[in-house]
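Chapter summary example.
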Amino acid sequence: MIDYYLIGLGSNLEPKSNLTSACKSITQAVEVLQSSQVLINPPCGRTFHYPFHNQLIIVRSDKSVSQLKLIFEAIEISQGREPKCPARKLKDRPIDIDILIRAKSLHDLLQQELEESYNQQIMKEWLFTGEAISSHVKTSH
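The structure predicted for these 141 residues follows.
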């Protein structure tokens, strides 16, 4: 069964190259329908030292959530992120890849509310420009 996923990417260590590399790796594993613009956020908290660059991508895949998580974790590790551990959340990172939403259709995916304010901002601008929807129209023909 094919599902649609909204994926969140973030980086605050060499973000331009790490986001680009992560997107290329994800494209090799699943069908990427659209990538948003990058939003730059100031570091938050005492443990982060550099601004975060955040991006959303929409993918379509027949892989399960657990299969995608394994793929994304392997991409993170290949780009220099340490393996999962509790302290990892508090450190600067070359790349962070998270599954934010899973839905049965693009319409359902785009109707979901996002938790993080920076992702809400990206999605609002993305939907306003119509890019998230026009991409699907182009790939569905």
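To summarize the output: Confidence is low (pLDDT under 50) at residues 134-141.
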